[in-house]
Design goal:
Length: about 110
């Protein structure tokens, strides 16, 4: 998994690519909660993430909890159909704000 970040329109955008599984979840875990705690809005772009395992879901949940504790927002964008299915089945769809694109996520902030 690769992570790149950029600041755009008052939000921190984290662009993830590759599988989010047991082997790669620690990469996201090292970055996501800290970024959410220190930025008012973090958009995690999952457009290039074709697979999320239970280990990946756990890391995303840690990010959501960090946002709730700090009063900051975590928005997910660009979920592939297979990833969206995992979110629907696991009930994670109701936990996160999910936008189709980064641009849509930014528009909700206005």
């Amino acid at each position: 998994m690769d992570l790149n970040e950029e600041a755009l329109d008052g939000a921190l955008i984290l662009h993830a690519s590759g599988r989010l599984d047991t082997n790669t979840a620690p990469i996201l875990e090292a970055a996501l909660p800290a970024r959410v705690e220190s930025n008012p809005v973090v958009i995690l772009n999952l457009l290039d993430v074709p697979y999320v395992s239970s280990a990946g879901l756990r890391v995303l949940l840690k990010g959501a909890k960090a946002g709730k504790a700090s009063g900051n927002k975590l928005i997910l964008s660009g979920l592939a159909e297979s990833v969206q299915d995992v979110f629907d089945i696991s009930g994670f769809t109701s936990i996160f704000v999910i936008s189709p694109t980064v641009e849509d996520a930014l528009a909700t902030l206005s």
